[in-house]
Amino acid sequence: MIPHFRFTNRFGSVGLAVLLGSGLWLVNAHAQSRAGEEQSLDFSNPTTVTNPYLPLSHLHQDILEGTEGGKRIRIERTMKPGTRTFLIYGKKVTARVMEDREFENGKLTEVTLDYIAQDDSGAVRYMGEKVDEYKAGKIVGHSGAWLTGEHNALPGVLIPARPKVGDTFHSENVPGIAVESDEIVSVDETVTVPAGIYKHCVKVKESVEGEEPEVKFYAPNVGVVREMPHGGDVRLISHK
User: Fold this and answer.
1) E-assigned strands of 89-177?
2) Domain annotation covers residue 93
3) Mean pLDDT, rounded, for 72-85
4) CATH number of the domain within which 52 lies
5) How many domains does the chain have?
6) CB of 99 within 8 A of CB of 84?
7) CA-CA distances (angstroms) from residue 55 to 52, 123, 181?
8) How far is the CA of 30 from the CAs of 12, 16, 90, 128, 135, in angstroms?
9) Among candidate residues 96, 76, 68, the one with its CA nearest the CA of residue 211
10) In the chain, N or C: fewer CB atoms in 10 Å?
C-alpha cells in the first residue's frame, strides 16, 4: 500500500553547504520532526527513471501545444545530458536533468532545468529547478527556483510508484518560494490528444494557495500527455 506522500523531514533544521564547482548541496542529517511524520529515502539507482507514468529514461523529447489565458502555448520538454548530485541524509543522490522551454505566442518566456530522480520505492522525486524567465530575449527573473538542500528544501514527489485515488503529496514544499499540494483523483482516464489516444491515464490535481487548481494527465509508458491550467488546455503533439 502506497502511503500518502505528505513529505516531511525527521531530522530537523536543515544545514546546507554549497561546495563550489561541484554542484553538490548538503542536507544536514539532524532536522526537527515535522508533524510527527517520518520519510525514509533510499536511492540505489536514481538516474534510472522507469516509473510507468513518468518513464524519463526512455524519453528524448515531448512537445505540447495549446492555449492559456488567450495565449498560444508551446512547451518543449527535453532530457539533457549530464546530471546533478545532491547529498541527502549523508548519501549522494544523482539526478537526471530535464529542460522545459515555454513559449507564449511564439516568444520564449521561460527556460527551466528540472532535477529528477527515482527512489527505491519507484516514486519519481523532484529535486528542484533552475528557472530563467525571459522577456524580449533577455533573462528578467528566476521566480520559483529552488534546490534540495537550500531553504530547508527536501525532494518532492512528481508521481508515486503505484498511484491510487486519494493519494496526496507535495511536488514542491519550500515555504515562501514554491509550495504545491497534489492529489490523485483518477487512475483510469482516457485522453485524446494530437499525439494519440491514451487509456488508463492517471489524473492529478495540483493546487497552489491563492491560485486555481491545475490538472495533469499521465499516460502509461509515456508521461504527461495533457495539462489543464485554469483557463487553458495544453496537449501532447509529439513524443519521442
Assistant:
1) 91-104, 107-118, 124-135, 138-141, 146-147, 156-159, 168-174
2) yes
3) 97
4) 2.40.360
5) 1
6) no
7) 5, 11, 22
8) 5, 11, 10, 21, 42
9) 68
10) N
